[in-house]
Recover the amino acids of this structure.
DNA sequence: CAGCATACCCTACATTGTAGAGTTCACGCC
DNA sequence: GGCGTGAACTCTACAATGTAGGGTATGCTG
């Protein structure tokens, strides 16, 4: 895509990571997105996106220790990098500007 | 992408169309996006997106008569369809939910 | 007619998004 | 001690979207 602007789904993943804070990892992000965006995400979509965000330096990951209490693979925890945060802020500002004044007009379309 | 959700750039184009109202056509949309989003768009990017939006029924176009006063090809005017408006509203609502509460936390990332 | 600005179209390719099956690990059960 | 189950992540192949950049058409103006 742009290379300088993250895509839509990438933004969604980053937002979920921020919302989840210390409890952000692949699985929980999937749950959160399904809950908030009302949109089922396949794990394929999710993990490829996570990896790409990490490559771009917008996200960093840290391997969890053993498995806390419930069974399963060790979790790979996610956190935003400063660049990721900055990128989110810019996405927000751009959207804010684009949407300014549109809401009123949107009602008029028939 | 999703097939049910428009991509980021598609949303931007639709927003510009709404903002421009009766004066929306390819060239003016490009100008508007450059102005508001601070992002240069190549005409290639723009027109392929417009065509895809039209195919999906989110946008409709109407050929302008002769050239009004300034030279150039006849303009192809753009307008949102009801489906397009609905799609924008849903994109907005989803984003609103995803961003809720994130702004505060975004300041904490270093 | 040449130069220029407006406006749009086309092709080829890069990036991003998605599905779905597969792998791994830990637990509890019988 | 193999088996089922659920959590969690990986892999592969493909579809949708985004982008660059040159090309075409039209009408000014000199």
């Amino acid at each position: 895509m742009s290379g300088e602007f993250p895509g839509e789904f990438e933004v969604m993943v980053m937002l979920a990571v921020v919302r989840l804070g210390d409890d952000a990892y692949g699985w929980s992000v999937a749950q959160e997105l399904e809950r908030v965006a009302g949109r089922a995400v396949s794990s394929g979509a999710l993990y490829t996106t996570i990896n790409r965000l990490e490559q771009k330096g917008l996200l960093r990951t840290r391997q969890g220790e053993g498995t806390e209490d419930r069974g399963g693979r060790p979790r790979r925890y996610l956190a935003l990098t400063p660049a990721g945060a900055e990128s989110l802020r810019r996405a927000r500002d751009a959207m804010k500007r684009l949407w300014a004044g549109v809401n009123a007009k949107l009602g008029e379309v028939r």
